[in-house]
């Protein structure tokens, strides 16, 4: 049981940075790098014990499960823990060029954001999930306001009011559940609530779902995602679009399958929300003139694919595997696209695509990186997006051909707007091209993510078998309950 | 049960204030009322009529056995701290918004569209 150490590591780094970084600003970046590297190491050390024992549990200060605080890691959460630590490391690495001033504040907030993400992924009871969710949220409000210009302040205050408002609904749901069951430990709840939803549990689940769906921008809770991603600095935007969304989906699925055993009706709702996200995200991305908004709506559409796949799982069980595989893939794809576009945004200080016309023509690394990301986003063969989208098509045709038509058409639209963005940024004639000096801190994350996108596309069986292990852990909650309660 | 109705009333007032008021500060006040309503609900869930404070005593000598559930009180304390930090951050951002926009009306913040 090592991976829960990533929570105290990030928290300690967050507290150390203001003390050590205030004398020498470079140190704050070094501490952040060391902390996020240590997080990767401890999460990788977790793999053998999870594969061997199905689940590894840590009881805080020795109080056993339903009474004390416990953190529990199984294969499903471990996948996201590793993803979060890897993307977190890349984000810290990539931030070097962006953060020339205010670096102490920036890295402190980033460490607190990582603490929140890791806490949500590890949490073994609902209240700790809520607390870490709030830590994540508060850090992200402050990071949204980082530029302190008109637009970012507007985005931050909107995000703060709506975000804390929806998070309070989550607390309301938790209060209702505590009133019904008298416990908040996830494993204990799963036993107490039993199979199926009663009316009051369904209301509570709905309230919690709303708060989590707001974070991962599932339609109809999507309305701020594009605003936030337009105004944040690109490294943070990459983290919001990929890991924060994935964390929200993780928490929804953990509660949905492990705790509530939500019934047949809810699957229809998931399919409906997924289809709405796909249609709205794709169509809105098509009309955007702002590169960051375009990528934001693209991320909403891709999350819709995941939600749709989870909803279809009640009818076709392979669909769960497709959903988890697609979620893993879009984390890498979104991060890659934001990293590539972010370099141009940094250089030219604008996110408007008309002003960014052709600015990337002189940079082959960015150009190929964005192209691979765009093709993978649309699901072109030999990329990871294709492998997971293919599984979703195959599953959807067994449920309803209409879903297949919607997903295929949405993928075609994705190709259209991704290539539009690519051709505007990297192929058209530039008015004033500036050569951008890239150093290792930018090239390494982009090349690394490109390699992963291609590798998961060619060796898709590896990706599918990882997703299969995670799916088994997610669907069968018996080992989780037994493991936690002992 | 009387407390539950007051909690429901506070929650409704809070939701209405957040949604209907234009002024950002009033929205924050509404959020406070909303979350305090939830806190009241949580406390009332843990309350036992004629229960005593949840401190372990010798039951044989005192004859007390009905304790108030301490867990919701711990939740509420944590949640109050979270609300405090959210309110502090919100007021800090509202001050910055006022410096840049010269207004704190939510309707006049409309740079982000599309």
Distance between the termini of chain B: 47 Å
Low-pLDDT segments, ≥5 res of chain A: none
Number of helices of chain B: 4
Helix content of chain B: 55-70%
Oligomer: heterodimer
Helix content of chain A: over 70%
- Written as H for each helix and E for each strand, in order along the chain, the element string of chain A is HHEEHHHHHHHHHHHHHHHHH
The total beta strand count of chain A reads 2
Largest sheet of chain B: none
* Series of H and E elements of chain B: HHHH
Structural overview:
The complex is a heterodimer of chains A (486) and B (114). Chain A contains 19 helices and two strands. With 486 residues, chain A is an all-alpha fold. In chain A, helix 2 (25-53) packs parallel to helix 4. The longest helix of chain A is centred in the middle third of the chain and has 32 residues, at 150-181. The radius of gyration of chain A is 21 Å and the shape is globular. Chain B contains four helices and no strands. With 114 residues, chain B is mostly helical. Chain B has helices spanning 2-20, 24-46, 59-62, 71-101. In chain B, 27% of the residues are buried. Chain A binds chain B through residues 127, 131, 134, 138, 141-142, 145, 148-151, 153-158, 160-161, 164-165, 168, 171-172, 174-175, 178-179, 226-227, 230-231, 287-290, 293, and chain B through 11, 18, 24, 27-28, 31, 34-35, 38, 41-42, 45, 71-72, 75, 78-79, 82, 85-86, 89-90, 93-94, 96-97, 100-101, 106, 109, 111-112, 114.
């Amino acid at each position: 049981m090592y991976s829960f150490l990533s929570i105290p590591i990030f928290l300690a780094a967050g507290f150390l940075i203001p003390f050590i970084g205030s004398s020498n600003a470079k140190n704050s970046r070094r501490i952040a790098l060391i902390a996020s590297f240590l997080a990767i190491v401890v999460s990788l050390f977790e793999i053998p014990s999870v594969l061997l024992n199905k689940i590894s549990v840590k009881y805080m200060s020795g109080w056993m499960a339903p009474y004390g605080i416990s953190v529990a890691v199984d294969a499903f959460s471990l996948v996201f823990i590793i993803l979060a630590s890897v993307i977190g490391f890349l984000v810290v690495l990539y931030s070097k060029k962006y953060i020339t001033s205010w670096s102490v504040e920036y890295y402190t907030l980033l460490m607190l954001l990582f603490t929140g993400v890791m806490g949500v992924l590890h949490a073994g009871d609902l209240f700790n999930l809520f607390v870490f969710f709030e830590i994540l949220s508060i850090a992200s409000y402050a990071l949204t306001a980082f530029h302190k210009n008109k637009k970012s302040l507007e985005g931050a205050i909107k995000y703060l009011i709506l975000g804390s408002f929806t998070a309070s609904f989550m607390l309301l749901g938790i209060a209702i559940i505590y009133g019904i069951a008298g416990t908040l430990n996830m494993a204990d709840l799963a036993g107490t609530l039993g199979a199926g939803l009663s009316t009051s549990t369904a209301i509570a689940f709905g309230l919690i779902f709303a708060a989590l769906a707001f974070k991962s921008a599932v339609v109809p809770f999507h309305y701020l995602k594009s605003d936030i991603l337009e105004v944040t600095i690109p490294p943070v935007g990459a983290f919001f679009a990929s890991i924060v969304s994935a964390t929200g989906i993780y928490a929804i699925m953990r509660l949905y399958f492990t705790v509530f055993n939500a019934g047949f009706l809810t699957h229809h709702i998931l399919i409906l929300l997924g289809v709405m996200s796909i249609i709205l995200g794709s169509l809105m991305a098509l009309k955007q003139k702002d590169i960051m908004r375009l990528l934001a709506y693209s991320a909403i559409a891709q999350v819709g694919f995941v939600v749709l796949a989870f909803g279809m799982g009640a009818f076709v069980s392979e669909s769960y595997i497709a959903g988890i595989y697609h979620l893993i893939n879009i984390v890498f794809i979104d991060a890659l696209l934001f990293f590539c576009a972010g370099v141009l945004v940094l250089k030219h200080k604008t996110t408007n695509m008309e002003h960014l016309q052709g600015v990337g023509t002189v940079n082959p690394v960015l150009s190929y990186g964005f192209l691979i990301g765009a093709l993978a986003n649309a699901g072109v063969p030999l990329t990871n997006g294709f492998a997971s989208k293919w599984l979703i098509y195959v599953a959807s045709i067994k449920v309803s051909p209409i879903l297949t038509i919607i997903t295929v058409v949405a993928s075609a639209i994705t190709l259209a707007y991704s290539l539009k963005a690519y051709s505007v940024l990297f192929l058209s004639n530039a008015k004033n091209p500036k050569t951008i000096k890239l150093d290792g801190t930018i090239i390494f994350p982009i090349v690394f993510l490109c390699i992963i996108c291609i590798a998961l596309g060619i060796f898709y069986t590896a990706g599918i078998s990882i997703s299969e292990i995670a799916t088994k852990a997610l669907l069968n909650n018996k080992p989780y309950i037994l493991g936690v309660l002992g | 049960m009387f407390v539950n109705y007051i909690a429901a009333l506070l929650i409704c007032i809070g939701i209405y204030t957040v949604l209907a008021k234009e002024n950002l500060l009033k929205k924050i006040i509404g959020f406070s009322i909303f979350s305090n309503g939830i806190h009241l609900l949580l406390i009332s869930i843990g309350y036992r009529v004629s229960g005593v404070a949840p401190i372990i005593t010798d039951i044989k000598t005192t004859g007390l056995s009905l304790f108030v559930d301490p867990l919701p009180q711990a939740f509420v304390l944590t949640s109050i701290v979270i609300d405090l930090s959210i309110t502090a951050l919100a007021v800090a951002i509202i001050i910055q918004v006022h410096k840049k926009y010269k207004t704190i009306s939510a309707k006049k913040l409309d740079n982000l569209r599309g």
